[in-house]
Write a structure and sequence with these properties.
Blueprint (H helix, E strand, L loop, with lengths): L3 H13 L9 H25 L3 E10 L2 E9 L5 E9 L4 H18 L5 H10 L1 E6 L4 H20 L8 H8 L2 E4 L4 H8 L16 H11 L1 H10 L5 H9 L3 H25 L10 H16 L2 H4 L16 H6 L6 H25 L14 H6 L8 H16 L5 H13 L1 H6 L3 H64 L7 H9 L3 H18 L13 E4 L2 E4 L2 H14 L24 H35 L1
Parallel strand pairs: 1-4, 4-5
Antiparallel strand pairs: 1-2, 2-3, 6-7
Helix pairs in contact: 2-3, 3-4, 3-5, 4-5, 8-9, 8-11, 9-10, 11-15, 12-15, 15-24, 17-18, 20-22, 22-23
GO molecular function, one term: 3'-5'-RNA exonuclease activity
Keywords: Coiled coil, Hydrolase, Nuclease
Length: 627
């Protein structure tokens, strides 16, 4: 109320050119608010009484050392209304019940028909269900509410005593529902702990690794919570099994370590003041060197070796950091974590080589000239500004869903461009000139906007038709290709399902040309018709190596097909009936030798991808030089 006078004067001055001195008094302004509240109470009371089966839900919170209780109601018609937001002395059941009764009495007092006692009873009886989290207060509050409601039924319902027992039982019953996502929050609160997991907010790029660190820290809390539930469902019970699996835990721990060592510090580096895109070159090189080293041997990373020195980007060594890097006596768990780190480091190296190619050695921006450095001096390290615009847009769309896009655009521009400050800095003549221009152009702006809307509508229709036609053509070509390959397979005597089939059929063919043709046909059938698993190179006839095209020999094609058959072999086993009360881990542990063999193969595959990526980059640079 203290600030609204200035707002009124500013609006009238800026928009109407009026200099107003006499403003409504604080008493009148306060009275207007009270009248508005009274109207809201009348609206809410009538809505509660004209609907049945209403659902009460609410929550409590503490802000600036004060506790607030919020009550909301979803009416039988489906509409949700705020019932009250009250400050109260504490967060216990007694305080919450007192706040509820206070609000109900206020509502009962504004209803015109009936006595206050009758209206109070009718309002409470209209509540048939509740929804809340499973904090310690809410179950006891629900029990007290149900008891009060049962006592008031004879007052609210005419001829209560003449009703049969079945009807009385139905009217007396009240259902209480609880919000499951808040279980962990409440459980941690009772333990005096903070929930370190976060929801996706705006452009949180590191959400996966950040929450992995939090999940690893909370792993025992999660298991204890689910085991304390009276009737956990199958999904929750399966979580307890997964939360105790070494392989899963090792993967989660590895991602958490990456958050504390790689992605977190790198994000903080990106947001360092006075850092532009080209000043990252040396840091990106450091990152590549470290990722390459850790992909081969991640023991030092497991021990907490930082990616950058503290003066470049600090590590957040909090309780999550301590838990992630706590030395484990379980040697197998340590090995699994190190293997996971090495695989992820290899994948991250591929991503870095691909996305930062221009700023790594050999790239066009690795050793920029003074002119390019000057051009890039104001280039930010991220596209965060666009993301911030989208965040504002998201808010505007939610608040004003019917507004035109051009209106949202104007709001974002005024907010982020400081248009008001710009206007205030102009001379009166300049300001009048700009305002006149804006007024004259407004009709044209709207005309262009409407025309563009029509163009966009037409383009969407054309794109939709084009995509439909492309899908039909793709399906036609796919069917034709499958028929052709199937006919070729039939001439070869059928599909080779094992290496034995392959050896027998190859022995019956003469010459490398016929064998190559047969092997390629089998590989194409497995890929196109059976859609089996396997890396792309296994199904090709040629591959680019060291800048040259290499044609696979019969021996190499044979090896590729053998690998495809091995990867996709299916073992026939009788499906055992699942025992609901005896969940088993959905994992088959390999021996240490098998695990190491698999790790080496995965790293070899990733290394090949890195090499191919480097060759492609070299070829692109060579083409640019020739051009």
């Amino acid at each position: 109320m203290r600030k609204v006078d200035a707002v009124i004067k500013t609006v009238l001055n800026k928009l109407a050119g009026q200099d107003v001195q006499r403003i409504p008094s604080n008493w009148l302004k306060s009275q207007l608010l009270l009248e508005a509240r009274g109207l809201a109470d009348i609206q809410l009371g009538e809505a509660l009484l004209t609907n049945s089966g209403n659902c009460l839900h609410g929550d409590g919170t503490s802000k600036f050392h004060k506790h607030y209780q919020d009550f909301e109601v979803t009416l039988g018609c489906g509409k949700t209304m705020t019932m009250g937001l009250l400050e109260q002395g504490g967060g216990d059941t007694e305080s919450t019940m007192e706040s509820f009764m206070h609000r109900i009495k206020e509502l009962a007092g504004v209803i015109k028909e009936g006595t206050t006692e009758e209206n109070l009873a009718r309002l409470i009886v209209s509540l048939k269900t509740t929804m809340s989290d499973q904090g310690p207060v809410n179950p006891s509050f629900n029990r007290e509410l149900q008891a009060v409601r049962a006592d008031l039924l004879p007052v609210a319902i005419e001829n209560w005593e003449s009703l049969d027992d079945a009807t009385k039982s139905e009217l007396s019953s009240m259902s209480n529902f609880y919000c499951i996502p808040n279980l962990l929050e409440s459980h941690l609160d009772t333990l005096g702990l903070k929930n370190h997991m976060v929801t996706f907010i705006s452009n949180r790029v590191n959400i996966l690794c950040h929450n992995a660190a939090a999940v690893f820290y909370h792993r025992h809390h999660i298991v204890n919570l689910i085991q304390s539930l009276p009737n956990p469902n199958q999904l929750l019970r399966s979580v307890t099994v997964d939360a105790q699996e070494k392989v899963f835990l090792a993967g989660v721990r590895a991602l958490g370590i990456i958050d504390k060592t790689v992605t977190g510090p790198f994000w903080r580096l990106l947001n360092t003041p006075e850092t532009n895109i080209l000043s990252l070159n040396q840091h990106l090189l450091t990152m590549r060197i470290q990722l390459q080293r850790w992909s081969k041997h991640a023991s030092s990373l497991l021990e907490g070796e930082p990616l950058f020195s503290p003066d470049i980007a600090e590590q957040h060594q909090d309780i999550l950091f301590e838990e992630l890097f706590r030395e484990s006596a379980d040697e197998e768990f340590q090995v699994l974590t190190q293997q996971a780190l090495e695989l992820v480091m290899s994948a991250m190296q591929i991503l870095l080589e691909r996305q930062a190619a221009d700023q790594l050695p050999g790239g066009k921006y690795w050793d920029p000239s003074a002119q390019i450095q000057a051009h890039a001096s104001n280039v930010p390290t991220t596209n965060m500004l666009s993301e911030r615009d989208f965040a504002v847009l998201d808010l505007l769309v939610r608040q004003k869903p019917s507004a035109r896009t051009i209106s949202h655009e104007a709001m974002v521009m005024w907010l982020h461009n400081g248009t008001m400050q710009w206007l205030d800095n102009l001379t009166p003549e300049e300001k009048e000139e700009k305002m006149t221009m804006a007024r004259k152009s407004s009709a044209d702006v709207l005309k262009r906007y409407n025309a563009r809307k029509e163009d966009i509508k037409r383009q969407r229709q054309e794109n939709l038709l084009k995509k439909q036609e492309q899908n039909r053509e793709r399906e036609r070509q796919d069917k034709t290709k499958k028929i052709e390959i199937t006919n070729k397979i039939a001439k070869l005597g059928g599909v080779w399902r094992s290496t034995t089939d392959m050896d027998v059929n190859l022995a019956g063919l003469e010459g490398d040309k016929e064998k190559t043709k047969a092997l390629v046909t089998q590989l194409q059938f497995h890929k196109t018709v059976l859609k089996v698993d396997g890396r792309r190179e296994l199904f090709q006839q040629t591959v680019t190596r060291h800048g040259k095209v290499h044609v696979f020999s019969v021996e190499e094609l044979t090896s590729n097909l053998a690998e495809v058959l091995h990867i996709n072999q299916l073992e026939t086993e009788e499906a055992e009936e699942e025992n609901e009360n005896d969940l088993q881990p959905a994992l088959t542990y390999r021996t240490q030798e098998e695990a190491m063999t698999r790790l080496v193969e995965e790293k070899r595959k990733l290394a090949r991808e890195i090499e191919c990526s480097k060759e492609e980059k070299t070829e692109r640079n060579t083409e640019r030089e020739h051009q």
